[in-house]
Design goal:
68% helix, globular, mainly alpha, two-stranded antiparallel ribbon, cell membrane, transmembrane helix, 391 residues, 4 strands, ABC_transp_permease
């Protein structure tokens, strides 16, 4: 009965996405680890973490879509939650280095020894424990989103003003994390990771496991977002997006609806950042750059906001294109990205998924016309599309 209720709460697209991601979570690691070198279906070692990075970006785009596509909150600071989750994971990975660092200090990371720190800051305490670090991955972005969102939504800051202050938030964090006295490695950030859960972070098996974890996490995020948007709360979120004042006038606490969506979105972004860091091997303040958050908006718009599958498609496709362009034509990538956003805004306002939906609707309408089936308006008006000729 519980399973049937869960499936009723998910739309068909979400179910298919979850199943595909679970298959991919098994197929990609199996291709890399089980097939012999030279086999045409074997994925090289470097491809596995690259694909894992794409999945974390898709998860970040899905997190933004929850607040922008369904609640009308255009956040230009979601990269901050992504980066904070990444730093929490990076702190755990730095504590695993121990005496294998350059200065062989069993407690302090190398950058702290270099800066003459004598002891760990209080916020580094316990970060050598994986589960405490994972709690920080979830709690810290969620707490930041809660405080920021409570103050902003309670003050009824909306529209472009809200977008600007979210951008200001991530820029302030960028400046803060650049400071050496913050205790996060300054402009160099955290890097030179060795182990995760006792396993070498560069081993093929570990990279395959991290990819599988990214795919499963994205599937869980799809499940959570689909459950939310298809519930009664999801209908209220859409009402807030389309007519906030009317929703408030009929008695809903709009600020609480927005706050819930914003916090859940931040937690998903933080988990994505935590999975991103061990696969790329570094986290530094550049992840707080407002330009990164704007890129996430582009991914979501290209795929199609207000859909579950759209941000995933946009996040993966745009970053695949980025990998190609930055390798083949690095000087033209920003021009291509800007042109993509302009084309999407002018000609594809509903993104790739919306374009496919419009094509399918037009095809269905044409087939109905060819068969002589009544249109919805004709059915509503009681009009016979093929009246019998007068006798």
């Amino acid at each position: 009965m519980i399973t049937q209720a869960l499936f009723r709460a998910l739309d068909k697209r979400a179910i298919w996405i979850i199943l595909i991601l679970l298959v991919v979570a098994v197929a990609v690691p199996a291709s890399n680890l089980l097939l012999p070198t030279g086999h045409p279906l074997r994925l090289p070692n470097y491809v596995v973490p690259l694909f894992g990075k794409y999945l974390t970006f898709a998860m970040l785009a899905l997190a933004l879509d929850l607040v922008w596509g369904y609640c009308g909150i255009l956040s230009l600071g979601h990269g901050a939650f992504f980066a904070i989750g990444g730093y929490a994971m990076g702190m755990y990975l730095m504590r695993q280095i121990g005496t294998r660092g350059v200065y062989a200090n069993p407690t302090l990371p190398d950058f702290m020894v270099f800066l003459n720190w004598k002891e760990l800051p209080w916020y580094w305490q316990g970060m050598d424990n994986f589960w405490i670090a994972m709690v920080a991955v979830v709690v810290v972005p969620g707490l930041l989103a809660f405080v920021f969102g409570f103050l902003a939504f309670r003050s009824r800051v909306t529209g472009v003003y809200l977008s600007i202050i979210t951008q200001a938030m991530t820029y302030a964090l960028l400046l803060a994390f650049f400071r050496n006295d913050m205790g996060f490695g300054g402009n160099n950030g955290l890097t030179d990771f060795k182990d995760i859960l006792g396993q070498s972070i560069s081993a093929p098996g570990t990279r395959a496991a991290l990819f599988a974890a990214s795919a499963v996490a994205l599937a869980f995020a799809v499940f959570a977002c689909s459950m939310t948007v298809n519930s009664k709360l999801g209908k209220v979120m859409v009402a807030v997006r389309d007519a906030e004042s009317r929703t408030r006038f009929i008695g809903y606490r709009v600020e609480y609806v927005k706050l819930f969506a914003f916090v859940v979105s931040a937690v998903i972004a933080g988990i994505a950042g935590a999975l991103y860091v061990p696969q790329v091997g570094i986290i530094n303040p550049s992840e707080f750059d407002p330009a990164n958050s704007i890129e996430v908006v582009i991914w979501t718009a290209v795929g199609g906001r207000g859909t579950i599958i759209g941000p995933i498609i946009g996040g993966i496709l745009v970053n695949v294109g980025k990998s190609y362009f930055t390798g083949a034509f690095p000087e033209y990538w920003l021009f291509a990205l800007g042109a993509l956003f302009v084309v999407t805004t002018l000609f594809l306002p509903k993104g790739i998924v919306g374009l496919i939906g419009q094509y399918r609707a037009a095809t269905t309408k044409r087939e109905q016309h060819d068969r002589g089936d009544p249109t919805p308006r004709q059915v509503e008006a009681g009009v016979d599309p093929q009246p019998n000729p007068a006798e």
